[in-house]
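Input/output pair, single chain:
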Amino acid sequence: MQNKQNDGYIRIEKLAKQYDRVKAVDNVSLSIAKGELFGLMGSSGSGKSTLLQMLAGLEPPTDGRIFIDGEDMTHVPPHLRPVNMMFQSYALFPHMSVSQNIAFGLEQDPLSRIEIQKRVDEMLTIVSMRDYAHEKPHTLSGGQRQRIALARSLAKRPKLLLLDEPMGALDKNLRDRMQLEVVNILEELGATCLLVTHDQDEAMTMSQRIGIMDKGEIIQMGTPKEVYEYPNCTFSAKFLGSVNIFSATVGEELAETTLLTVPEMQSQVQVDRCLSLPEGLQVWVAVRPEKVNLSIERPESAYNVSSGRVHDIAYMGSHSVYHVTLESGKKLEAYVYHSDRFIAEPITWEDKVYVHFPADSVVVLQG
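Output:
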């Protein structure tokens, strides 16, 4: 999945929505490139669904502008916008066949019957559902219904497709499979999409870029790797994946590294770069669980080491999650991955262990 250069095909400028005293969306600006799949994440009440509804024309903005392919769509009614939405429920008409469901939106446009049938056949081929053209939705599986809903949404060739929790109705195995299948279909058609989801795996798998919303604002944007590996604040770090966060104080710089004092680890943490921050500044140290190593013997390094006791182990199949209570009382998670089918676990419940991690795994946050 290639990243696309952002050409501002979809452009949101200082968009805001206020309900009485509540700012649901607060001064959001965003550009999405043509053919890009942009994922928008956030907890309940963060404003992501309100932003989606304003793009669809279902909610008028309090302030700001919306441009699609260079045209101002801010006050254009929903039925005149080149926008389509695919809902979590799929909203297929139960009394209509698969072909009739796909054709429904096209029949509202000034298209000939021949053109409508051509578009329906094209979409059935793309979503691999030609053999089910005359079936009713209730006879189809969840994945098949999703493909039909996607085909109906794309049949009108919208300039922007809005995906609202598109995998929410599927079980985990099917959801994982359909994520890549939907991405392949969208890329084949060159569709421009905004995906709204609370599912981190879904956003990371499907999106070329991700935006994280909190309190009506987009607080961080970037590729999935950028947002995960380099969060810009503690909220982003905690929201996307699991993370260990410690309060810290900036210490001295040594060559091309920086030392931080971390009381909860009862040791110093070394970062593999100069932070150019004043000594004594209060910051946060974030380390992902997969970066943390466990050992019975103390490592030779003087930095990034602490000791504690294993109080729980969760077997997750591909890896085990070790929950360690440090001597300070701080709880920490470490992932141990299973490379062999049969795992001899030298570290078990109640064992005293040393936790340690490399200097290049440390992210320093100021808020």
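The chain has a mean pLDDT of 91. The first strand starts at residue 10 and ends at 19.
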